[in-house]
Amino acid sequence: MDDSEALGNSNPSDRAKAKKQKVVVIMGPTGSGKSKLAIDLASHFPVEAINADSMQVYRGLDVLTNKVPLSDQKRVPHHLLGTVSPNVEFTAKEFRDSAIPLINEISARNCLPVIVGGTNYFIQALVSPFLLDESFEAMDETCMDNLSGTTPLDKSFIPEKNSSNNNYDLLKDIDPVAANRMHPNNNRKISQYLSLYARTGVLPSKIFQGKAAEKWGQVGNSRYDCCFVCVDASLPVLDRYVEQRVDCMMDAGLLNEVYDIYDQNADYSRGLRQAIGVREFEPLLKTPVIEEICKRERELTKDSRREKGDKVSNYDLRELLKLSSDMKSITLMEEAIEKVKVNTRRLVRRQKRMVNRLQKLFDWTIHYVDSTDSLSSKSDDIWTGQVVDPAVKIVRSFLGNNESLSSTSVTSNSSGVKILQRDLWTQYTCKACGDRVLRGIHEWEQHKQGRGHRKRIASLKNKSQALCLVEQ
């Protein structure tokens, strides 16, 4: 029996699945080795990489964002890497709209599209039929058509610029259920919710709680036949690695890069300036000694055309700062470096939690490869044996339609609970942890299992105080 006959005897859902383009997704926390694995897979498959890191898509800050240098790409085509203007906001919707035609082109060349990145909501934008959280404009029209009970259009609900408090109060007035779902300071998402209502008259909570939300996030409803590979490592090893990487970035000219884009009047909530490692250096860059150093160096190079804001790549700003006698600025620099390390460690934990959430909440089947030993030993042999070889087997089985390893096979949900019934909306407040707000039962259960929460509960028990109180 040939392939066409086999497809003819299969049920409609199998035929629909078989028609989907195959895509490999490499995910995982920062520093785990995602980009390296994608390049190494090219030794076994005709790979083209599509970057799904929300900061690496921008031009500039190549050191800070840890872009793979051209010399290390080993002639593997890389897409959406350093191609977007650093001053614009590149949303998940825009990533999706850019990645879809790239996937079509790569597949047409009989190559394997490999999505690489730690920005998981970018990956969700490809997997889900619409973006539940990031941008309502990304929703399919069919999802909008399924909504009922919408409110009349009212342009008076257009969000105000630079007025997060007023916008949040406005959202609470028109849709308290949606307002309850987010932090009051999340102005970007609040503005998105208000803009949706102003444009369509649709209450955001109607989208989240209506028919359109039932299939959101489910891998079985994906545009593509996806194989998810997560490169992971133990937290202690990742912590040490990312700290060492920050030190290496400083050696490679990180401070110069940040100075080059520094503008105290710029919007640091948009574009490339959101990257970890930019805002942390702002107190240092505001000091007069920095401009004095750069001015002096420009004069020494006898380049009178260089003005404030011109690139300083001809000299090492960090070393010149160390040679200065301004101990305050040196202290600010060391504090900024430590903040970058702390915030990067926090990012690692958020990324790990998000991958776990995708797997547990949305039934994604994710194959894990462990890079712990290779990061610790820096051994190429260990990397090949423990990361590359297992990943090659996973991808080869996926391409061979081996259902036991195909990541698009949906993990069964023993409870049989639909997403709509999984409590994505209830807001929980943990009194023991300083009134920390958790949204949804999944986040709440994860929080209760966390080491920090358990230590605080133990402390409260020892002091004969109340256990963690929950307000809903």
TrEMBL record:
> Alphabetically, which GO biological process terms does the record hold?
cytokinin biosynthetic process; tRNA modification
Q: Which UniProt keywords apply?
A: ATP-binding, Cytokinin biosynthesis, Nucleotide-binding, Transferase
Q: Which molecular-function annotations from GO does this UniProt entry contain?
A: ATP binding; tRNA dimethylallyltransferase activity
**Annotated spans, Disordered:** 1-20
Pfam families on file:
IPPT
Keyword ATP-binding assigned to the entry: answer is yes
**UniProt key word ATP-binding:** yes
Q: Which domain of life is it from?
A: Eukaryota
Q: Where is the signal peptide?
A: none
Q: Which GO terms describe its cellular component?
A: mitochondrion
Write out the similarity annotation: Belongs to the IPP transferase family.
Recorded hits in NCBIfam families, A to Z, give: miaA
HAMAP family linked: IPP_trans
What protein am I looking at? tRNA dimethylallyltransferase 2
